[in-house]
Design goal:
Chain lengths: ~300, ~210
Amino acid sequence: MMPILEMILRPACWLLLAPLLPGIINKVKAWVAGRRGPPVLQLYYDLARLWQKSVVMSKLASPAFIILPAVSWVALFGAALLMPLGPIGSAFGFRGDVLLLIYLLALSRFCTAWAAMETGSAFEGMGAAREVSYAVLAEAAMVAAILSLSVQSGSISLVTMLSPAAGPGMVLLAAGLFIVLLAENCRVPFDDPNTHLELTMIHEVMVLDHSGPPLATILHGASMKLLLFSVLLVQAVLPLGGLSSLASTGLLAVGVLLVTVGVGITESLLARLAFKRVPLLLTVAFLLCLFALLSAWKGGNS
Amino acid sequence: MNSNLNLLIGLAMGLNLMALGSSRLPTVIRSMAAQGVILGAMPVLMEHELDWRVLLVSLATMAGKGWVIPSLLRRAMRTAQIDRELEPLIGFVPSLLLGAGGTIAALALAQALPLMPEHQGTLLVPGALATVFTGFILLIGRNKAISQVCGYLILENGIYIFGLLLIKSMPLLVEAGVLLDVTVGVFIIGIIVDRIQRAFDSLDTRKLTALRE
């Protein structure tokens, strides 16, 4: 009975809880600014509304325009299933699954960027170029973080890698991964999810021509990615493996909530960075993760 | 005790990178000041029994490097009316990467050095080398006189960390003397910065290379 229940509950957990996170972020931002803000469930309403709409398609676009958002969503969902969830582990973990996770995230980004360029609009090509060029730098930081976790735990599968605490470089790793989270999910210091100004947007400009169900899959995929990165951050930093299952589930939930609130507060307090300065911040994230790797390595030796 | 010391040196190394990566002069000055305070706390941690002289030098270092010198520099910055380094010779990302590479190289080098057994487990030597290297990068790579002064002070901080290795055998008077020298030096540099600003309308040291009548 338990395996079947788990098989249903885990995807349901990822699919249903993910759209909550942007809602919480927006609520926190509204709260800091002294507004009432949209309801926490706003993204669910949006998704339901978009799902009922029809697709408007450019005459230039090939069928890939509709297929690629779906592929991107499936890649993100697969990455989510790889990610262990505290006590229950991952759905199909194996040795080296962390590489698959990184590649699935890259595949999803590739699909979004390709779909953005399908309409032949220079504007979306610009967005795709920006997204991909930031991703190169963010990925370096991500790989350094994964390496440091792997060196720390002496393993290359996500379940054993994420269960102990991150060791002496924990603070560095947490800061680095938080910056990566902000960059990968196009949050404020890198990209403003609310703006529709030509000069400032990255992710929003890529999805500008999508409509109806494909846009809904993109939005849902983005929220799932946010949840994925917060779960990764929390599990990398906190030693969830040593606790009882109830405590670690609770801790994971609280941690993800804290990360989400942290993103909201960061967004309220910071202004978007100028494009020129973004590589600097991503380099800082890379160095933070690199030094976490170094301390994991040195700490393991002595 | 060693782990506390290593934590402080790690913080000082982090501040090095902060000074390298920031384009705003107040941030550079602040990270330099914070580094000075951290350095001031180190002798107290290293001595087993507290001596009033050690405490005095430590307090003087903290006050001098953390407050007197930074406030002198801030004053110079205000009179010169600049607060940003624009287009440095070595860009911020390259200098940050250079600094990080230098730090890692220092850590690797320090393992190869034949150290005294009591210095084996500490980060004193790599910390000193990395800080000196950071100072050099700032000195070479920045155009504004005030950033270069910060680079010089960070270089001096690195030498100070190196001096901590000899804290048992070196009279504290030397430390006090160095501190005094540095303070006077910054005091003079503050005046020079003001003169440069008046004569050239800019603190860009590249303009000081040509001789004029």
